[in-house]
Amino acid sequence: MIRSRLLLALAASLFLLPAGLLHADEPVRVGILGFDNYQAVEYAAFFNNPQAEGDLDGLLVTAAWPVLSDSYPQSAELTERWKPQMLNRYQDPKSPRGTAPPIKLVDSLEELLANCDVVMIWSLDGRKHVEQATPVLKAGKPLFIGRPAASSVEDTVALYRLAAETGTPFWSCSQHRYSPGFSGMRNHPEVGNVLGCDVYGGYDPNAPEADRFIRPLHSIETMYAIMGPGCVKVSCASTPKAEVYTCVWDDGRVATYRGIKEGAVKYSATVFGDKGVSTAGIYGHGVPEKGIVPTKDKYMGYGGLAIELAKFFKTRKVPVAASETLEIFALMQAADESREQNGAFQPVARLLEAK
User: Fold this and answer.
1) Which end of the chain is more exposed for a tag (fewer CB within 10 A), N or C?
2) pTM for the full predicted model
3) Which residues belong to any copy of the Gfo/Idh/MocA-like oxidoreductase N-terminal domain (predicted)?
4) Cα–Cα distance between 160 and 164 in angstroms, integer?
5) Which residue range(s) make up the domain with 186?
6) pLDDT along the chain (355 residues), means of 10
7) What are the C-alpha distances in Å from 174 to residues 4, 85, 279?
């Protein structure tokens, strides 16, 4: 009951749209918090492209605040590596593509908030996301956090609770959710109604503890893009070569995730339906037809999420329900607990109760 009340409150609040926040003829000013993650550079490039069209037109990254993490020895080095690309792209006056206004490098979160309308957090260390996001949400700035939203179920719930309390639109996901070859499998005509899927992708066992949820998240988001929400229990088999989750849905459907620790790494899935069985596309590419996976079509590794971000920042409509993201984090936590219990199934909803 507590969980139901929380999720209903979150769902109601996160779809409220602040009226009159921006004039239609002004670009949405985007602030970036943390760019030790290369994705910050990629999404800044989408929004600041002078030739941006369609949904991507009308946004502009105006400010960025670099933040570092002691938990990532490479955080400072990565920030310095990506800084020139963040600040110099679209700044060549001789470029035939045109130029964009420069991105301002700021020294504090307060300065960042003063120079933007909406915020993206791309800092690598998920343990710091609640601390970083709190002033953003309290300032009423629509917020997206790149994966992971946080480093625990408790912190993820805290983020969504604060978003609900402040009435600030907020969401988080992996870009794999919007890779066309994955999202297009839910209603694929050769598959029909999805009965299950076997998803696979990389799982780095040497990642820092702060990366605990980053390890499986790309593939679990793929699983949810194909299956939709509704997982009730999960088991985890773990060896030095692979991490395998078996996930049972409330309607009896079953999905699995193979986290690859050793050998070749590829991100995709096999999807089972009432009409047929098909491989999914590969990351960044389109849906297969008659078993043929496209590889020469337009690459959309980051493009799908960029479009969803642009829509969100313009409309304030959250595309992924809070309840679904919370379920994903509870699933990953339950899988960790199953690993500690020698693979015994663990309930998912229990981890969200009374939080």
Assistant:
1) N
2) 0.92
3) 101-170
4) 6
5) 177-292+330-352
6) 45 43 75 96 96 96 94 90 93 85 96 98 94 98 96 96 98 97 96 98 82 89 98 98 98 99 96 97 95 94 97 98 97 96 96 73
7) 25, 22, 21
